[in-house]
Amino acid sequence: MIQSENISSRLLARNSIYNVLGQASPLLVALLVLPFIVRGLGSERFGIFSLAWVILGYFGVFDLGLGRATTKYAAEALAKRRLNDVGTIVWTSATIQFFLGVFGAVLLIVFTPILVERILTVAPSLITEAKETFYLLALSVPLMLVSTSLIGALEARQRFDLVNLIRIPSALAVYILSLAGVLLELQLPAIVLLIVLLRVAALLVLLLLNLHVCPELRKFSTSLHMLRTMITYGGWISVSNLVSPVITYFDRFLIGSVVSISAVSYYAAPYEFASKLLVVPTAVVGVLFPAFSTFSATGKTERLQRSLSLSLKYLVALMTPLTAILLIFAEDILRIWLGGEFARAGGLVFSILLIAVWLNAIGYVPFALMQAIGRPDVAAKYMVIELPIYIAVTSVLVLKLGITGAALAWCLRMLWTIPVFLLICLRIARMRVRAILGRDVLRGLAISAVMIFSCFVAPLVMRWNNVSDQLVSVGVALLIVLAYIFLTWRYAFDSEDHGTIRAVLHDLSPSLLPKQISRHV
User: Fold this and answer.
1) pTM for this model (two decimals)
2) Which of 221, 266, 301, 404 sits a CA distance of 20 to 30 A from 42?
3) What percent of the chain has pLDDT over 90?
């Protein structure tokens, strides 16, 4: 059982790396496998396939924030040694998730004929295949929702090794099974059926691991009082989840209406690439959230402040080199990936969006803090207030500057949101600003900001001076990254940070990783 005194910086750092690997490895495999799947299925079948997964993702709204609520309340119960409550929390969440999932599945099945025949432009020869695909995919809705509750139980215990032991093979298997289905010339419904069966198997393994690690789950127990508490908490998370897509996709519809449809492509492609960097803060915050909940529940204010401060420092240190390298090679990446036209039209946009993503990553930490201390309403209310302001700023900038204006609007939103939201969160959590933004953190932020600015300006300077040699770009990138590592290690990290980093690298060495995971299982 994980207690607050057992949650060390070393444990959080190691689990964060597990989560980053779990989030990033499927993306790398997807880059390699998707071209073969697209060619094998053909553009129309792949369009149906991709739209089906997008629609399934939207059915995640039926979660009602219960997955997050499970992690929070289970972590608090463990911290207070109320073991019987843990089983009640998890089974209450999983039960309601199952019924919500069944409702969502029935809804998808009922509306599939309307969706395929009237809303989507599907070729007549593929209508039956498309319907069967959606019907089969509907079976995944309850599986997906119940899994979030069971994963939440493991996250509450800081068992991210086990979470990713399931997450990574499952995510990789989706692409491998899809590719196998294409090579075997299976129809789309048969491929989807294989994926649904995979999800059933993953859910069973997840359940067995939970029963092994969490013995209190062996007794089935639910509570209406706990259900009301969790739904009240999760409701505010659902509000955030509903507003967030509006903020995220408004600029694309605006570009399509006032600029051109082709301009949407020049904006959306670099946006999708840049936003993939957010897997890093997503993974890190996934680990921090149950730890924050534990410290908050046990009144460990100093530990909570220390963890918050360290997480800001380490997250910035992780994001900065990745963002800097992409900034140096922004146009080259677009040219290799999508061609010269995209590089010319979207190069500057890509660079601005990368800076926006870097800023956005910092905001993940106070966002997790508010949810951990039981105030998810703060983020939801802030997003609702911010939405009209963002829409107004984006509209003006897109009208004046086109897709560059859209990128600037997102970057400006991050510039005003991150400091304001952070200060609001610290005030509500009754934390001292100096305790969070200490000298080391501010030094790290300053060094990172200088590096990000340098990497944004360096390609512009080289272009103005007609320097196109790739070796020069590589040399500049290497020099800036090495300077960043030295300055951060020397001035932003103290001796405790040095010890934590060395210990985590030792834990994650190839010779020790399998042994460590097997020992925990």
Assistant:
1) 0.77
2) 266
3) 11
